[in-house]
Design brief:
With 109 residues, this protein is mainly alpha-helical. The chain has four helices and two strands; from the N terminus they run ααββαα. A hairpin with a 7-residue loop joins strand 1 and strand 2. The chain is flat, with a radius of gyration of 27 Å.
Length: 109
């Protein structure tokens, strides 16, 4: 299929590029799926399970969920029960302490 690129305007070129990239992604996913099936078939043919070969490793693309809690990094000097790991949105007490002139290292555990 030959396309005369010089005859296409900007929006037509953009559309062609996005369609070509989408098709390229489809082909890659198909190829990866076929390869994954071949590898799993080889493992099974030898009498092993995926976990025997790769241990507890997750297959590529699997998301890690619920990995546990993170140790707190900061503590509220006014209330020792309030802590923050340094991840996610800053708690109000942390922001208020910074506005009051404290530094992050002052709040560190």
């Amino acid at each position: 299929m030959a396309v005369d690129l010089k005859s296409l305007n900007h929006s037509q070129l953009t559309d062609l590029i996005s369609k070509a990239q989408a098709r390229q992604d489809e082909l890659r996913k198909e190829k990866v799926g076929k390869l994954r099936e071949k590898v799993l078939a080889m493992i099974k043919a030898e009498g092993y399970a995926f976990e025997d070969i790769f241990g507890g490793a997750r297959p590529v693309g699997a998301k890690r969920r619920g990995t546990g809690t993170v140790a707190p990094k900061y503590r509220n000097p006014a209330d020792a029960e309030q802590t923050w790991s340094g991840r996610g949105k800053r708690p109000r007490w942390f922001s208020d302490a910074l506005k009051a002139g404290k530094k992050e290292k002052d709040l560190a555990i």
